[in-house]
Amino acid sequence: MKQIFGIGKETVVRLLLAVGAIALISYFIPHEDKVDYNYALGRPWNYSLLTAPFDIPINLDSASAEKQRDSINRTFVAIFKHDNSVDRKAVLELSSALQSATSLPGQKRNHLVEQVRRIYVDGIVDNATFDCIKEGALPEVRFLVNNVAEPVSTASMRSVRSAYALIDSVFPDAETQAAMDKVMITRYLMPNVVCDSVESKRMLDQLYQRALAPIGVMQKGERIVDRGDIVTPQIFELLKTYEQLSADRLVKREDYKYTIFGQIALISLLIGALFLFLAYFRRRILENMRKMIFLTSFLVLFIVASFMVISTLGMGVYLMPFAVVAVIFTTFFDSRTALFAHIEVVLICSLIVPFALEFIMLQFLAGVTAIITVQELSKRSQLVQCAIYIFMVYSLVYVAVHVVTEGDFSTVSRNVFGYFGINVVLLSFSYVLIFLIEKLFGFTSTVTLVELTDVNNPILRELSEKCPGTFQHSMQVSSLAAEAAHAIGANSQLLRAGALYHDIGKIDNPAFFTENQRGENPHKALTPDLSARIVIEHVQNGLRRAVKAKLPQIIMDFIVQHHGCGKAKYFYAQAQNANPGKTIDPVPYTYPGPNPMTKETSILMMADATEAASRSLTDHSDEAISSLVNRIIDSQIADGLMKDSPISFRDVEKIKKTFIDRLRTIYHTRIAYPEVKEKK
Q1: Measuring CA to CA, which residue among 126, 143, 122, 128 is closest to residue 80?
Q2: Which of 54, 130, 343, 371 is the most exposed place for a label (fewest CB within 10 A)?
C-alpha cells in the first residue's frame, strides 16, 4: 500500500516523525514558569541577579523562628474541657447499682454518691496529666468560657487511682467497703477533664502566627540576591518564601493552560522549520528514511536529556554539552544542517533556562566553534582541540555577558569555569558516540573514511600485491577525484576512500586488465563477449569482497556505480568490427549498474575513465589533454550515465578544468639535464 488517504506512505512517515517529536518534547518540557534554584545555607549564590517579581513578605530566619517556637512551647498552657456527660452518667449508674445490688442504708448510699459527685466536680484526669500535676509541670490548665481561655488550678484534680484512694479513706466502715467492692466502684471513676487537642492546636497556631508574622515586605523589583553573595539565614528564608509563593501563584493562575499551549506552539513551529529547511535545502536527507529517523530521534533524546539535567541540577545549563549536536551532525551530514539543528536545540531549551540571553549566546557561539573545528574530522585529537576551543569561547562569552548585565568583573563566579571544564570533557567523548551511531544506523563518519584510506588495510594490501597496476591506477584516480570533489564542494574524503576500493574486484582476475599485464594478453584467445563478461564481472567480484570485508554501504556504492550502465566499449567495438553489417546485442557488453546517484560517484566515474584513457596518450600537449577530458566526460553524459545524479553542468565544467590542470601537471614535459663533457 503505497498511499494512505491519497498521501504517499513515506510522507505519512515523515509527518509522524514530526508529530512524534513535537509530542515527546512537549510532554517532557517542565511545565513551569520558573526554574528551581540549587543553593545552600552559607554557600555563594551561583546565579545572576535575582529580583523580586512581586511583593514578598520578609519572615524570620529559621534559627530565630525556632527560638520563638521553643519559647511558645515552654510557656503554652493547653486547653482542657470538662465533660459533664461523664459526671452525670457515672453518678446515675453508681446510685442505681448501689440501690439494686446492695443493702447499704440510704443515708450511707447518698453520702457515697455525693462524695463521687464532688470528686467529679474537682476533676478526674488521665494518669499522664496527673503525673505532670504532681511534678509541678502543670500547675493550672485553661478552660474555654465564652470563647475565652480562663486558667483553672489543678491542685484539686485527681487521677482515677487517687480518687479511689480518697473514697476508700472517707468510708472505712466494713458495710460501705463491702458495698463498694460489690459494685466495683472503680468502674464509675473515669477522667472527665481531658485535653481539647483541637482548641489547643488552634490556640498554639495563633501564637505561632503572631510570633512568626512577617517583619517586613520586600517590594517588587527589589534585589533578593546576586551572583557571589553568601546565602545567609535571612536570604535563605527569603528564597524559600519566594519559591513557595511562585508555586502558589502558578497553581492559582487560571491562564496556565495557555502557557502550555504557547510552549507546544513554539515547539511545533521550530520542528516545522527544521523539516522545511530539509525540504528546501537538504532534500536528500529528507528522502532518506534512515537518516530522518536518526536525525529526529537524536534531537528528541538530546532535548529531553537536557530538560532533565537542567531541571535536576542547578548548574545543569552549564554542564550539558550542547555542542555535541553540532559535532555529530557535522560528522554525519554537513555544516549547514549541523548549524540549523544546533540552533533548533538551543532555542527549544531556552524555553526553560533561567537566563535565556546568556544561554543562547554561549551555546550558539560554542556550536559555531565546534562546526568550524570538526569540519573535516579525521582523528581523535581534533575533538580534544575542539573541546579546548569551546572552553575558551564559553569563558570569554560568559565573562562578556556578565560584564554587560552586571557591569562588574568582581562578581564573576569561578565555579562556572569548573562547570565549563566538565562540559568540554563530556564533549570530548563524542568519539565514542560517533562509533555507536555508525554501528546502529550504518552511517560512515570521516574518521572511518580516513581509516579506510590506510594502504595497510588487508584489501588494499592484497590489491597492491596481486594487482600493482590497478593499485597505482586507484591511487591516481583517488587523488584526481578528491581534487575535483574539493573544487565543487563534494565530500573529498569519501571520494578518496571510494576510489581506492572501486576496483578491488580485479584481484580475482588481475591478468585480464591491461594495467596489470606484463606479457601476453589473455584476451587474444577469447571472444569479445567472453572477454567483456570477465571484465564486467570485476564489479560483482568487488561487491562480494566488500561484503565479506564488511565495508560500509557507501563504499559499496562506488564499486557498483563507477561504471554505471555503461558498455565495455573496447570489446563491443571489437565484436562489431568482427561482424560487419550485423547488429550486435549490447546486453552482454553492458555493466549491470546502477548509474551514479550522487555527486561523488559521478566524479569517480569521470576520474576513472579519464585517468585510464590518459595512459594511452602519446601526445601530452595541453590541447591533447583537454580534448581527451572533454571527449570522455561528454561521452558519458551523452550516453545518459549521469541522468540519475544531482551533479550540475557548472559542476561538470569545474571537474573538467580540475582534471585538465591535474593531468597537465602529471604529464608536463621535463627538462633534459645536460651532460658534462670531459676534456680530451
Answers
A1: 143
A2: 54
Closest of 189, 203, 118, 187 to residue 159, by C-alpha: 189
Q: Which three cell numbers stand for residue 118?
A: 464532688
* pLDDT for res 1: 43
d(CA 428, CA 645): 37
Three-class SS state of 364: helix
DSSP letter at 655 equals: H
Helix (H, G, I), strand (E, B) or coil at 679: coil
Instruction: Count H helices and E strands in the chain, helices first.
Output: 29, 10
Query: 588 preceded by cis ω (within 30°)?
Result: no
- Locus of grid cell 564489479: 539
Is pLDDT of 5 > 70?
no
Q: Report the amino acid identity of residue 269.
A: L
Q: Which residues contact 465 (CB under 8 A, 6 or more apart)?
A: none
- Closest listed residue to residue 506, CA positions, set 472, 550, 553: 472
Identify the sign of the CA torsion 516, 522, 524, 528. Answer: negative
Quick count: other Cβ atoms within 10 Å of Cβ 445?
Answer: 21
Mean of per-residue pLDDT scores for the chain: 85
Query: How big, in percent rounded to 5, are the helix, strand and coil portions of the chain?
Result: 65, 5, 30
- Check residue 152 and give its pLDDT: 87
d(CA 276, CA 291): 16
Q: Please state the pTM of the whole predicted model.
A: 0.62
Query: Which distant-in-sequence residues (6+ apart) come within 8 Å of 343 by Cβ?
Result: 364, 367
**What is the widest separation between alpha-carbon atoms in the chain?**
175
Report the distance separating Cα 528 and Cα 574, nearest Å: 6
The tens digit of pLDDT for each residue in 577-596 reads 888 878 888 888 999 989 99
**d(Cα 188, Cα 160) in Å, to the nearest integer?**
9
Check whether 644 has a pLDDT greater than 60.
yes
CA dist., res. 384 & res. 486, Å (int) = 26
Residue 141 has phi, psi (to 5 degrees) of: -125, 175
Fold that domain 457-666 belongs to in CATH: Hypothetical protein af1432 (1.10.3210)
Please give the Cα distance from 169 to 154 (Å, whole number).
Answer: 21
Torsion of CA 362, 436, 502, 623, to 10 degrees: 0
Categorize the per-residue pLDDT at 287 as very low, low, confident or very high, splitting at 50, 70 and 90. confident
In the chain, the amino acid numbered 338 is A
- Rounded to the nearest 10°, the torsion over CA 643, 647, 653, 654 is -150
Highest mean pLDDT pick, 214-228, 241-255, 305-319, 477-491: 477-491
DSSP letter (8 states) at residue 230: B
Q: Cell 493550672 identifies what position?
A: 140
- Strand runs (DSSP E) across 130-192, as ranges? 140-145, 148-153
CA distance 593 to 78: 97
**Rounded Cα distance, 580 and 591, in Å:** 24
Torsions phi, psi of 518, nearest 5? -125, 10
Nearest to 154 by CA among 136, 139, 142: 139
| All structural domains of the chain with their residue ranges | 79-195, 256-441, 457-666
**Residues 6+ away with beta carbon under 8 Å from 656:** 629, 630, 633
C-alpha cell at 465: 600485491
The Cα angle at residue 78 between residues 74 and 83, in degrees rounded to 5: 165
Selection from 401, 348, 338 nearest residue 368 by Cα: 338
> How many other CB atoms are there within 10 angstroms of residue 210's CB atom?
10
Rounded CA separation 295/5 (Å): 26
